[in-house]
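hey so u asked for the seq, here:
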Amino acid sequence: MVDTFSTVLKILLRRKTNSSPVGGKPIPQKSLSVVDITCLGLSTTIGTGVYTILAHTAREYSGPSIVLSFLIASVASGLAGLAYSELCTRFPSGGSAYCYVYSILGELPAFLIGWSLVFEYFLAVILSTKSITNYMNYLLNDTFANSFTYNVFNDSNGGIFFDIPSALLLLLIGYVLTQNLKNSCIYNNILVFICLLITVGILLSCLSLADCDNWTAGPGFFPNGIVGIFSGAAVCLFVFNGYDIIGLLSSECRHSYQNTTSAISLTFVLSLMTSFSLSIAITLLVPFSLLETNASLIKIFVTRGLNGMKYFVIMGAICGLISSTIASLLSLSRLLYCLSNDGLLFTFLSKYESNSGVAKCATIVSTVVCAITCIPLQTTTILNFIGTGTIFAYMTVTLSILSLRYCRTENLPSDSCEMLLRENSYIDIRENSLHNITQSISDYYLNKRQTILKSIANDSQLIEELPNDNCLSETFCNCIQSDRPLNCSHHHSYGSLPTARTLSVELINQTVITSVSNLSLTTRQEPTVKSEKFVLVILPIMMATMFIMAITTVHMPNLLPVGIQWSLQLFSTLLFIVICVCVALMTGQPRHHVSTSNNSMPCIPLLPICSIWLDIHLIVCLPYTSWLAFLIWCLFGIFVYMSFGVWNSVQALDGLQPLDSIECLETIDGDDCNAHEDYQYINELALIETSDESQEFNICDIIVGSSV
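ran it, structure tokens below
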């Protein structure tokens, strides 16, 4: 019985061991720049966040304190952004929270996170598209509402609005996305730049007419108290899902391990500035009770008598919301492609066209399903469902960071191209290396590889003595694909971060980071079996205590009489003490230390625990409708996984039929690498830049030992 349970647990928690293209599948085009993925990450905030979520949250939850709600949401997203930055650097092959959790925590948790993000992106696509229709309907004096409203059930309150225009618009956007990824990103960049310019104009107009009485009159600045602020922050966090969008498209980006972290930092700064400033300006312009869900920004200017501003606002709304639709639909299709590529969903969704960089089947299916679903759904219904998937994704990404630091070395995941990088001892392989080859070097075999590398570098000090084991087989090919530095080390491990520093968000000064990060109650440097099991026990206890404390502080005061509120405060204090003790015990456990000068998350475990704590509190503050929709969707997802995914997973097939050959890149002339019984040949073209000069070589026919 125990053996059966252990076997089932190993199957459900098996981890992804190879993130590179397998089975002859095409390699990503890598045509995107840092501007492209930054605009994609920013699209949801300046589109759905500004023109839909802001007014709805201020009216229903926070009131003028929506300013603080956006600030709390940005803090939660910023902490998650630190985790995304480290994981994007450690796993340069790219991926969303689903891919990172798959490599670190296991298959079933990864599928549930991926499945919940599918639901979140699905709702984001529908919400942004229907918001466009709402703005156009207001501008056209309810023409859409009068033309497509049908009284199906003989309702005395009116009929149901069947949103045919949204479906047609969504089909048009889906068609554009199926043509070419780079062109779609160019269109999105133009829309984002226009929207940002219009947003600045709206901000200046609102501040010129600001009335401070709108923050103090009536219910005041806190109409629903602290609970209203956190409830609004839980909804606002939905618009800060740009990090996951960036991660999904990072495999298509040049120099992904550098550009991804820069894009995450830029997205955080621009999203915070845009949402925070506009929330101040709009709540100062009109009382929050006058804000409406549909076409809110146009109506507030009409209310203040600025009728000419509605044409200016409608242009920004259309640009921002179309951009949000592009980013969400592109992310949805790419996530379905990742799930299918791993064997967890139907195989036909994994078809990828390397010439255009588009997963066409996944894009078509996503577009059609969203177009059909958006016809009967109403905007208010969608707003009651959003938020849960994004918060769970951010929380699991932070949990993955803790797992990496506190698990034993032999349990660390190893990305197929991840290697330990030595300071000043690596060769940088550029992304254009496969297209700039002018000469070739052939007939160099495995026993001469040290001579080859030294001759390329022209400096024996640059490359140290190489080990005799195979270090150029799969690592060499995958490093070329993922733009990672190639370095041979005497031992394979999880890998440190590149020494080159990229644009990152500095939240704490270096002195504090160093002192807190090195805090430990033991002199042992590496995690042991005992410490790993201890953290595995203490972390769920701490998270359960956080959840109980959130329930106690958010929902219990409404159920108990005022006279015994002191008991809740006492109980919350005891729970807080338990959490502090758990944090202290966890801090004293040995962990892997990573240099804080790179893109690693600082202050382990304090910052990850703060992030998890905040995420748990925000989850509790979500409306019950969001919880109900999320649980139903997850139950459906478990059924899909148990009936299809667990049997067709690529990891399961790899376990039954190990690959007899490594994956090699195609040559320029189209010839593939030929696998032999005992040897494989890497016939690849590469541009290797040394520290002194740049030379071009054709490295071919390098024999590497078989892994079998």
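The radius of gyration is 27 Å. The longest strand covers residues 679-682.
lmk if thats what u needed
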